[in-house]
């Protein structure tokens, strides 16, 4: 495999620039399937075209280059929002923005190159190579979900979020969605050299699978759900504090006052008082351990109702991004410290050493960066149940919701998506929260500083929401939970084992059989 990648840097095996540009275009078109557009009907044919194009390459190294170019174009289109955090303080960090975008796109390109490389290595001809590309890219999505702390953002299967097909995630998870999508996309390329009837059978089978998943998703969405035995009302507060103004001295108290006013507001006529009030990530201009009167003001505004607030806290020389549930100014009922931090944003690898030369995590408001908490922890909120807390970035990791000692009753995400701009980043983050609800069969309450704040039911449907750049509150009923899903019990391990085994078997059988196309690498 390493030798194959090395071969790719030799000019004779590298595709012409026109071929690489076309592959990048396929990646751009595939990105249209991700939020906020969700144009899966463009994304799926674009992915099929990329597989068709790459599987026809004579050299394995050429296939790897096609994969890199496709992934590069995909990331440029799907993740251009990565420049937004650097523009919050453009005079300091703005120069880094183009480098961040190019390096992010190149990193995505490497993962696609690995996926296409695995497929090229496993398959011996155009048809078996197409199947190998599907399996290899599924393996690449799995690899990206776990290595280097993981980054399972805009996975292949995420193009189905918001459609009935996404309901399959309750059984196979996000990697299963990716595998199914890739196999469907590879079907046309797997018909090369076959007679018309056999080719139609393969493509027809792929369409039957897609239609079956769609209809099965519709049936699951329409299935009745028993109501919650004891109603729970939440108030989700969205202060809409722009990131470039949030911590300025002349604005800090203004935004804090917004939180207080929205918290004190009376419910709509005929609606009950909330059982819990929620503020977003890093909502307040004080430390939990040095509140300077801030907790008194907060609990007074809550009027005796428990308040879950995103707050920073210190412990010696360490700082934590936390979620604290308080009832009285001097009483913290429950506390969670964020454990899955954003590399370079909330912490720097080798941060203590780098801080000595002035390099710090730019998203941390205090100290040189945050320290990670001890890990997953349920919040016991009494009659409100056991709650799984997620702070911002943690919502993109489905595996983190399987680390609790018992099943949560519901999920609470607090976040500050003001870092991500307003075009695509916040919507992609929100879409993944919807997928977490489907995977676990649990309702998810999401409170965002600038949006999207929403209540999501256990099937991923939005029951109420407050859009981007709006100030306000949502008084919402907590939807009921579903029985534990298959995915919540098994996780990703069985599917990853299946992908690895399928790649190994394909490699073995492809080498002991002759592909009817006659093509060999």
The main pleated sheet reads as: 6 strands, mixed
On the 0-100 scale, what is the average pLDDT? Answer: 91
What fraction of the residues are assigned to beta strands by DSSP?
A: 5-15%
Number of helices: 16
Number of DSSP strand runs? 12
Strands ordered across the widest β-sheet: 5-4-3-2-1-12
Which of globular, elongated, flat, extended, rod-shaped describes the shape?
globular
Helix content bin: 40-55%
Which series of helices and strands comes N to C?
HHHHHHHHHHEHEHEEEHEEEHEEEEHH
Distance between the termini: 13 Å
Radius of gyration: 24 Å
Low-confidence stretches: 515-521
* SSE class: alpha/beta
Question: How does this structure look, described?
Answer:
- With 521 residues, this protein is of the alpha/beta class.
- Helix content is 43%, strand content 13%.
- The protein has 16 helices and 12 strands.
- The strands form 2 sheets. The protein has a 6-stranded mixed beta sheet with strand order 5-4-3-2-1-12.
- Helix 11 links the parallel strand 1 (233-238) and strand 2 (276-278).
- Helix 2 (17-31) runs antiparallel to helix 3 (40-55), helix 7 packs across helix 16 (493-511) and helix 8 (126-146) runs antiparallel to helix 9.
- The longest helix is centred in the middle third of the chain and has 27 residues, at 196-222.
- The two termini are 13 Å apart.
- The relative contact order is 0.12.
